Amino acid sequence: MKLNTLAQVISFGLCAQIVSVAGLNEARSLERRKTSILFNPQGLPQLPGLQEATNASRQVGLNLDDVQGDILIGMRKLFERFFFFGILNAPDFKAKLKTEILPLVTSTMQVIANETDTMLNIAFSQTGLVALNITGPTNDLNDAVFAKGQAMDAFNLGDPNTTNWVPEFVGTNIHGVMLLASDTEASINTTLADLQSKLGNSITEIYSLRTAMRPNENRGHEHFGFLDGISNPTVGGFQDPLPGQALVPTGEILVGETGDSVTRPEWAKDGSFLVFRQLKQLVPEFNKFLADNPINEPGLTPEQGSELLGARMVGRWKSGAPVFLSPKFDDPDLGKDPTRNNNFTFAEPGQNISDPTDQSGCPFSAHIRKTRPRADIGLPENVTSNHHIVRAGIPYGPEVTTDETSSNTTEIERGLAFVAYQSNIANGFQFLQHFWANNPKFVHQGVGFDPIIGANASAERPVNGLDPTNTTRNFTLTTDFVVSRGGEYFFSPSISAIANTLSV
Ligand code: HEM
Asked: Where, by residue number, does the polypeptide cross the bilayer (predicted)?
């Protein structure tokens, strides 16, 4: 018998009742695409090549054929659809999970090797696992934050309540999410329509979000205009770190690997918790704030003063160049050089703690300093912090219209479909949001909120250190430029777990 497509090969394997990862690997190596479904913006580290990833993963015994493709690749997707669903008929869904979804689920190796036209990943919420009858103490993933769901966590995250939330995220009805990514929206539409017709009434669509990298010169930049995805940690077994990039234990991102100290069921190994947040960005309002408050520094025009204020709020210029290395003006060459643009610690070279009073280079409150304080909490980072996440988000919504620019008011929703992977939500996303970004006393008393994502339940937010001419000056932000529209917590299982546990 001649098997032509990946799907045929895998269904054949399934008919034979053997769903081994080796079998999947063999099948996957049959197809190779000429162009990548991903885009690698200048300034982000290149993804590892096939050989590099193979060698690295072998060294630590990590099976990248079994890890779903979205977890380690970061913010490089051109188009992505988030399809949130409820399970209506569990036995029917389980059968189709095995025969229809599993053959299309894309592994890390497949993404690296360009062996897919549309990447498909799937992840389940706690209520989704219950619907699949993955219950009882032996199946407990032991992540309390995941177990209660994101709506119950809204208060901890600084959301005033769930009134700003997309209604479908309120409650625990969402059982799972399918992530489909490609270089054209047409490929996503075709794959999704096909899947939906095969899944029939076993599931129901609850909510869906279309997203896309911004066009032209803004590719890779989030809606406020800043290059995003530069500084993601890498894990042992995937890629060697570039200068300044965090190399974290594999188990900080992947469940059950070295560095994950929590007891997990065997089947959960090499899965990862997926935090999804729909974060609306008030871009015209953000731009107005910058235009109204330019840093008044000798040698800078008002426009440059406004750009400097924005850069100090983020900690990087729009090009990606860090303000710590380029404090007064943007340096696009630095921004696009991944060997230099992450190579700093906030301390003087050679010191492992930064000066607790000096925010001339970068405010303590800057978004990248709040969410990854580097030497502020001591080095080496893999010893002093287990609070790393791999970000895999992508913008959603249209570009700002001329009407919105002239009225300084958002009329059409746009923002970031924020995705973060980690092996422990309380140490990862929740910690970053709650204990760091929303905590005006972190990393020192009085530094204020993260001006980008810090949330104070809609109340005003003091922020310190933004003005380099007077770093003790306080700003009071009366607008949340990022508004949470809610989300959900999911578990993105390994491919063998889908085959051998979730679909049986
Ligand atoms: C709309 C919301 C957000 C925007 C516009 C935004 C924007 C950015 C930008 C421009 C960067 C710098 C580029 C880079 O290093 O990749 C960055 C870095 C980062 N962001 Fe966000 N972000 C948002 C939400 C979040 C959230 C919710 C978290 C976590 C709670 C987060 C955590 C991080 C981390 C960990 C880094 C890297 C810091 C480093 O390693 O230096 N971000 N973000």
From this structure: none
